[in-house]
Amino acid sequence: RAGTPFPGDCPEFCFPDGVRLETLSQHQQDPMPVTNSFVLTTADRTRIYGVCIVWMDALDADAVRRFVGEAVERAPEAEVYGQYAVCLLSRAPAFEMLSLCCRTLYRMHLTQ
Fold first, then answer.
1. How far out from the chain centre does Cα 108 lie?
2. How far is 38 from 10, CA to CA, in rounded Å?
3. 27, 45, 76, 91: which has the fewest Cβ within 10 Å?
4. What are the CA-CA distances from residue 76 to residues 62, 65, 69, 79 (Å)?
5. CA separation (Å) from 72 to 19, 24, 66, 68?
């Protein structure tokens, strides 16, 4: 909505344990995306309902160098996975619809 700032707390709900990187073997242990729902309350007591889907995807070599640095120089063949997320917000408590939309967007991402 025009004039409504994006809530700054959203990343904390999408990544409650912080953003993490994984090796291929770590990723293979739990490769499925995770969907979270949450309710944000703004300073004026407006409720914003959200759903996010978080998944791991292989990072390109440049991103790996930026995040991992020299460690990648020692093991350049190691594939590194990073977290990606799609977060949808609504003023209505439409969690099922938002969750379905998140899963659809994730499936669309897989077919690219």
1. 15
2. 9
3. 45
4. 12, 10, 11, 8
5. 19, 14, 10, 6
Position 78 scores a pLDDT of: 67
Residue 100 CB-half CA count within 13 A: 4
Query: What is the secondary structure of 40-55 as a DSSP string?
Result: EE-TT--EEEEEEEEE
What is the rounded (10 degree) CA torsion for 62, 88, 13, 111? -40
Q: Are 30 and 5 in contact (CB under 8 A)?
A: no
Convert the pLDDT of each residue in 15-48 to its tens digit. Answer: 888 888 888 888 888 889 999 999 998 888 889 9
Which residue is it, tokens 């978080």?
A: 54
